[in-house]
Design brief:
The complex is a heterodimer of chains A (398) and B (494). The relative contact order of chain A is 0.08. Chain A is built from 16 helices and 11 strands. Chain A is α+β, with helices and mostly antiparallel strands and 398 residues long. In chain A, helix 3 links the parallel strand 1 and strand 2. Chain B is α/β, with parallel strands linked by helices. Among the domains of chain B are: 74 residues, Ubiquitin-like (UB roll) (Roll); 217 residues, FAD/NAD(P)-binding domain. Chain B has 18 helices and 15 strands. The chains are: A alpha+beta (398), B alpha/beta (494). Chains A and B meet through helix 9, helix 10 and helix 11 of A and strand 4 and helix 2 of B.
Chain lengths: 398, 494
């Protein structure tokens, strides 16, 4: 979403930064952009060139006596460098690890100078507020969360893409009206807000308004503004594992709780998904998750257990099922086997697409799948016109 | 302006902007910290020093947080203790290495074999003997009779054959003690003790002898009746007589007859008596000697019991354990594969090479060459390992969070440059490193050198020397400071 702003509205962002610099008496600024965002880098570079050419940046801007130098710092693509102290360390050429606050960057930041760090979206809203007045801006949105917010709507939803909505819009309205509901007539199950370290909110709770307080009270947060819709075929344990994998990989490795704790949590999730869960695993996840939140120093660690904790909170049954060796959504490969039902009309389609010759077929006779050869790629399910390939619970491991 | 705050409900005032950890220290409260060194900027990595501010329910590392007005710090509640324990357990889940070698870990008498070997190797006869006496009580008897579980556990067995621990120690004892004058050995045991606690043992059996030995080596003055020659065990007469010789040299007094009741009261701070012995004393302890002739096994068991009794007495008088095995934390890496054994072998060879090249290697006895076969697989940072100390203090469980896949052992060995030391080898074991970065910070002082650095991130974070340089190049002149600063036994000099 921020990337879209950088690519599509570079002037708006630079203008915002310029206004902020005048307001706070700032003379030097950086745009910290990940190097993978080539388009964003190009656009911002061009926009900067225009600003400098027109004399809107540099020394003594338009004869006002005010000077501002802006430059781009290309980040190497670490998620944790979105944390302000890590971002500053990275700009200084150090290892991108967060440091303890206080001191906050506003007291001692870049090269120990007072530093203002804001998000792209924040800067991009500044010109509108200046032009239209703060009152007009605060008229939009809910009582506590003012203005608009951009979300990246994704997942199992018809209309995917970026949306800007007034704060306080009910989550359900975003999913059903703007997003157009789930694909293929499936039912929505939950929505993951706040990116990989946010939490999931079950569909039946989505009548809450989208504002900071309501999201936090339901176990998630606004975060980066990601909205990922999950449908009834998604396994919550698998999803939690996926998000935790991301935070594990993106942990900077400084604090014990985040560095080691996330890995230990992930190992528990991995064994659940493999059908090797032990009783007490849910409590283990909850305890460790709580402690990681308390013991970590930066936002990444404090939020890393969120996907797991919120999915346990709202979908505890699925976790219990996994400990018992079943996955209700049949998403976890170790917990189901494929079988051909009596609906099979013997068309041999499945046998032809099977990459490992696991299906023995005689035309016009019911086919069978050799479980030992099957790699569960589900190609047969996709080609079968009769929906005769079904998933059943895997036999329990000894 | 004075900063006022509360730490564990005790008011604290200061004009200086100090950290919460320092403030607590000034109030006499110790907050544990692994990655904190007073001389360095805080690393805030280990999170063991975590405390809670009750005013806003925030948790933070006390080593780096500056005190503020109105703080209400909690560093003792169960919640905070649990966090610390968990943080230690998480560190331990990534920890690979034995606290003590398998020889010590398997020994019924907890004899620190590598330490004894070290003393023998360095010709520190007295140290070796008091180590043996401290743990075995009657070293001649125990060493000759024990089942040598240490040799069974020895890792060297996987390379060729186990180190002959029992034989080496036995020969050492015979050679050294038989040849030297007994009075020279252990003669200064009480030299530095001002007030010696005097203890009377009234029984004349083997268990009492062992107890007398344990007590004597731990600084008590002991008197007991002369050993009843009839009680000499079969096949153990010679060894036990040598043990008695050793006891005499340890200032244990053998009495011709037992003192009277009034003498007991005035001359002894404690009495250890059999059930039949009739006395009244404030510190009366019971010892049970066997009436029947005993088997080897029961005698060894009796000596073990004597050791426990010595611990009880020590606790009674000094308020702390001297044999603290029950509440000690021990990490164990368990089974090692062949590649891992080879690493141990190479490291111990490197250490021995350095030593040999500097000592006059001609007069190498059998014992020394046998000792040289020891893989030294015990932890060399055992004594000052803060990770182990805190783990014991907080009752951390070694395997609470078990790693799904077993870690591979690795070690880096490098000889120190000649201008620092010619006989020492520096080792770095990533499995014991807690990634705190103390050494990284210290080596920044090496001007003109790269020092050490972090590589990778997340769980893959490693401490390494940049650009593939050697370990001693990375450590440079800070090597001793780094080894000292390392909170676990990851960096060691041998």
């Amino acid at each position: 979403m921020d990337r879209m702003l950088l690519e599509s509205y570079p002037f708006r962002i630079l203008e915002g930064m310029l206004i902020v610099a005048i307001a706070a008496g700032i003379e030097q600024g950086f745009l910290y952009i990940r190097d993978e965002y080539r388009e964003a880098l190009d656009r911002i570079n061009q926009a900067l060139a225009v600003f400098y050419e027109k004399g809107l940046l540099g020394k003594n801007i338009s004869g006002s006596g005010f000077s501002l130098e802006l430059s781009i710092v290309r980040g190497a693509g670490a998620y944790v460098c979105g944390e302000e102290t890590a971002l500053i360390a990275s700009i200084e050429g150090k290892r991108g690890t967060p440091s303890l606050k206080p001191p906050y960057p506003s007291e001692s930041g870049y090269k120990n100078l007072p530093t203002l760090v804001n998000n792209v979206e924040t800067f991009s809203l500044v010109p509108w507020i200046i032009n239209n007045g703060g009152e007009k801006f605060s008229n939009i949105g809910s009582k506590t969360s003012r203005g608009t917010k951009t979300f990246a709507l994704a997942g199992k939803i018809k209309n995917q893409g970026l949306i800007e909505i007034p704060m306080g819009t009910p989550l359900k309205q975003i999913i059903d009206d703007i997003g157009g509901g789930c694909d293929n007539g499936k039912k929505a199950k939950a929505v993951q807000t706040g990116g990989p370290s946010g939490g999931c909110i079950p569909y039946h709770m989505t009548d809450i308004p989208v504002d900071y307080e309501a999201l936090i009270s339901s176990g998630s947060f606004m975060g980066s503004g990601g909205l990922i819709v999950l449908d009834e075929t998604d396994c919550m344990v698998d999803i939690a594992k996926y998000f935790l994998q991301f935070t594990r990989d993106e942990s900077c490795g400084k604090c014990t709780f985040c560095r080691v704790g996330t890995v230990r949590m992930l190992e528990i999730l991995e064994r659940l998904v493999e059908g090797e869960g032990k009783s007490g695993d849910i409590e283990r996840l909850e305890n460790l998750g709580k402690m990681i939140k308390q013991g970590s120093m930066c936002g990444l660690g404090k939020a890393a257990p969120n996907p797991v904790l919120s999915s346990i909170r709202h979908f505890r049954n699925e976790y219990i099922d996994h400990i018992n060796g079943t996955c209700t959504t049949k998403k976890c490969k170790a917990l189901f086997v494929l079988q051909i039902s009596d609906d099979c009309n013997g068309c041999t389609m499945c046998a032809r697409v099977c990459p490992c010759d696991a299906i023995s077929s005689t035309a016009y006779e019911k086919h069978t799948i050799d479980v030992d050869l099957c790699v569960k790629c589900e190609s047969c399910i996709n080609v079968c016109q009769e929906n005769a390939v079904i998933k059943i619970d895997a036999p329990k491991k000894k | 302006m004075k900063i006022q705050l509360k730490i564990n409900n005790i008011q604290f005032e200061s004009e200086e902007e100090i950290t919460v950890l320092e403030a607590a220290a000034r109030l006499g409260m110790r907050i544990p910290a692994l990655c904190y060194l007073k001389s360095l900027e805080p690393c805030t990595s280990c999170t063991v020093c975590i405390v809670k501010d009750k005013t806003d329910n925030r948790f933070f590392p006390s080593c780096a947080t500056i005190i503020c007005n109105g703080m209400d710090i909690d560093s003792e509640s169960i919640e905070v203790m649990e966090l610390r324990k968990t943080s230690l357990e998480l560190l331990l889940s990534e920890h690979l290495g034995d606290c003590s070698g398998p020889c010590e870990a398997s020994c019924r008498f907890d004899l620190n074999v590598p330490k004894v070997f070290d003393a023998i190797k360095n010709d520190a006869t007295q140290t070796a003997i008091s180590l043996l006496q401290r743990d075995l009580g009657l070293p001649f008897l125990v060493n000759s009779w024990c089942l040598a579980t240490c040799e069974n556990a020895c890792r060297r067995k996987r390379v060729d054959r186990a180190v002959k621990i029992q034989k080496t120690i036995g020969e050492f004892l015979l050679n050294k003690i038989a040849t030297s004058k007994n009075s020279e050995i252990n003669s200064n045991i009480h030299a530095d003790k001002k007030e010696v606690i005097r203890i009377l043992i009234t029984e004349p059996g083997i268990k009492s002898l062992a107890l007398a030995s344990f007590l004597a080596v731990n600084g008590f003055s002991v008197a007991l009746p002369a050993f009843d020659k009839d009680r000499l065990p079969e096949n153990g007469e010679d060894t036990l007589l040598m043990d008695i010789e050793l006891l005499i040299s340890s200032n244990v007094v053998f009495l011709e007859k037992l003192p009277t009741a009034s003498e007991i009261k005035s001359d002894f701070e404690a009495v250890i008596a059999g059930r039949e012995f009739d006395t009244m004393h404030d510190n009366l302890f019971l010892i049970k000697e066997a009436k029947q002739p005993e088997t080897k096994k029961s005698i060894l068991q009796g000596i073990k019991q004597a050791k426990d009794l010595c611990n009880i007495l020590y606790k009674h008088f000094h308020n702390k354990s001297v044999y603290d095995y029950s509440d000690r934390f021990v990490s164990m890496s368990g089974y090692l594969d062949n590649g891992e054994i080879d690493l141990y072998l190479k490291t111990s060879e490197a250490r021995n090479m350095r030593e040999k090249s500097n000592a006059c290697a001609d007069a190498e006895s059998d014992a020394i060459s046998e000792i040289a076969r020891c893989l030294q697989c015990n932890c060399h940072g055992f004594e000052d390992c803060r990770l182990r100390q805190y783990a014991a203090e907080y009752g951390a469980e070694r395997s609470k969070f078990k790693k799904a896949v077993k870690q591979k052992y690795s070690i880096k060995t490098d000889s120190l440059p000649a201008d620092i030391s010619t006989s020492q080898v520096v080792t770095y074991e990533p499995g014991k490193c807690i990634r705190c970065g103390i050494c990284v910070k210290i080596t920044r002082k090496n001007s003109g050198q790269t020092g050490l650095c972090f590589i990778n991130r997340g769980i893959q974070t490693q401490i390494d020397v940049p650009f593939g340089q050697s370990l001693s190049k990375g450590l440079g002149s800070c090597v001793h400071e780094c080894v000292q600063g390392c909170p676990s036994g990851a960096l060691e000099i041998e």
